[in-house]
Design goal:
367 residues, alpha/beta, Rossmann fold, 2 domains, seven-stranded parallel beta sheet, six-stranded parallel beta sheet, globular, Glyco_trans_4-like_N, Glycosyltransferase family 1 protein, Glyco_trans_1, Glycosyltransferase_grp1
Length: 367
Amino acid sequence: MPIRILQVVNSMNHAGLETMLMNYYRNIDRNRIQFDFLTHRDFVGDYDSEILEMGGHIYHAPRLYPQNYVKYFHFMRDFFAEHPEYKIVHSHIDSMSYLPLLAAKKAGVPIRIAHSHNTSIDLDYKFILKELFRYKIVNVANEFCACGQEAGKYLFRDKRKFTYIPNAIDKNNFVYNPNIRRKIRKQLSLNGKLVIGNVGRLVNQKNQSFLIDILNILIRNDINSHLIIVGVGKKEKRLKEKVEKLNLKKYVSFLGNRNDVNELYQAMDVFVMPSLYEGIPVVGIEAQFSGLPCIFSENIPKEVAFSKNSEFISLKSSKYDWAKLIYKSANNSESREILKLNNNDYDISKSYRILENFYLNLSRKCE
């Protein structure tokens, strides 16, 4: 019988940490290790059908609203009583992992893993609670993981050593293909245009509003440009209103959630992430394996970069400086057809063993 690992997430939609989990799930030896998922949304996620096909189970807990906490802990108490098979719980919701890991500790689950995927949190109505949970998480977890050094230092505050689990991808899905580039650019009417790409949730953290301002500068300077934004989120309406206000509607494509992001990278000329903060963005890794020149804000850890076509620029720099760098990067990059990228950390065909061995070693502690 395989070891069953309970992965705790918000949902299993197309997003960074969820995609990372699926990359590992597809590659580990599922005869020895099986993933199940505890989500905090009651809808069907983008990856749910694939999870079920691979033998995983999906459970839905109440949302982590403060008014739900009593209901939540009742649910978790009953859940662990009904599922004594879970000896390892691996939570991926940053400081909010405090809550499911506290429930797991109360239920006597022996291995409780907190995994850091970020370097900051949004200033929303739960900010004070999240900060409190960040300080207390080391009291309920007894194993610690992070996607990078800065992410680990942020969540665990140098209080605990942590295991580095790289945000690895299947690089073969992202190899540059000129035929796909021609197909997608024709479909989206992008021929002859400088195409800027961004992939991520439409939320304050990802800072797509800043990118729209940069596009406006390029267009006003007669640079035939087009911005592709892939993703959904609560800022979508506001971003579209801004595009309308600046008369940029014909220069911006909001593509929503897509399952062909690997092909969309082929159509881009430069990938830009002006994020306010990140852990190690999976999309940044994907874009580099696609051979794209990438421009990251200096708020993103330098650990993400492994291509010589990656650059960092401060959000304090003028938007004109950003526009100039985008134009230069899109026009001066090495041919994507001859760009060879070898990075073992971010190649899932090698790195899956890191997580596989991590779980196998932990399971021996439960015997």
